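Exercise 7 asks you to align residues with tokens for two separate proteins.
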Amino acid sequence: MRTAIAALAAGGLVATAITLSAPSSSQPRPGNDRETLRPVSSFNNIGDSGARSVALFTEAGKVLTHARCVNCHPRGDRPLQTDAMRLHQPVVVRGADGHGVPTLQCSTCHHGANFDPARVPGNPEWHLAPISMAWQGKTLGEICQQIKDPARNGGKDLAGIVEHSTHDTLVGWGWNPGAGRTPAPGTQAEFGALMKAWADSGAHCPG
């Protein structure tokens, strides 16, 4: 299978992003403001809890709107690829459960871990987010409302959202995306801390 995947990559069928190799998710990365996350403590000077909540979610939104997340939260039935968020090549579709159609499931090419020689990303839980959680083209305020809505988020309450953000391994892949892909800003621990502080301060959404 890996030989076949490598052949596809050599033929240009497996699209990749550019720039950075993936660091450990536990280690912060130097970089500009879009590559890092401010710590929760830096928002303590905002006295109004609603405004603080919005500010926290806006900072976490640097992850939510990053290509590593949006590529798996597309508005259509095809996943996206690369930092440019291009349609997946070869052509694959969502299927009934987000794992592809029976004749071409995500697991056909995407296995339990990244396969860097062919630039094929991998995770045991590889799949698309449900269409009810499509973020592509949405404002941060709209994404916030989706995340909070149990009817759209898989029945999660705020504690479940924080748990998913902090510990889900597929979410965590965004910080370990394999060679040739730009990781999400900050670390998963920093992202989870921002989401928890957002929830604890009232889970307010940007306007």
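Second protein for Exercise 7:
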Amino acid sequence: MESDQPFSFHFSALEHMNRFSAPRIATDSVHRFPWFVRLFLANQRRRYGRELEPARLWGRTPWVFAALSLLYGALDRKRSPIEPGLRSLITVRVSQINWCAFCIDINSENCLKRGVTEAQLEALPEFESSDAFDERTRAALAYAEAMTRTDAGVDDALAERVKRHFDDDALIELTAIVAFQNMSSKFNAALGVQPQGFCRVPTVADEAKR
């Protein structure tokens, strides 16, 4: 069940904040976006109470932004063979590896809304040894981690492990979700996109009090 208070990150939070830099590109508040980007941003204001900075950055390349939005909508559709909670767990784990503070922030909130527990979020970096996850989830997270780490990669043994839980079509979609999140989180991390307060990330001062 989702708690009343914002989830407070403990997993590698200090490391994430220490490595995090200031935004590298600022989009002026009066920047004039094309009409279809403005519609998308208006929907974000209704949904989140604010515009998301990655959308404002992508919106400066409007046709790429339009294609990206369609792809995200297709991958996050209700009838996806990858259940919503698992999709969100994957996005958080990929974002942890890629040091994307914004993605960890917003996707952790999505996890909680989709039935993932705070205990599971806390255990995510050690998912292989945690009893908070079933075998299907561990296999998917191992696959996501192997795809994301450039010194790893997916070997035959891991591919067979994943295929015990996902049929061919589901595996293709799982692969697409991981690939999309890698693009998104690397884009945000490289441009220094800051978290927007969906889930509270401890500051250095917070950690010092522990």
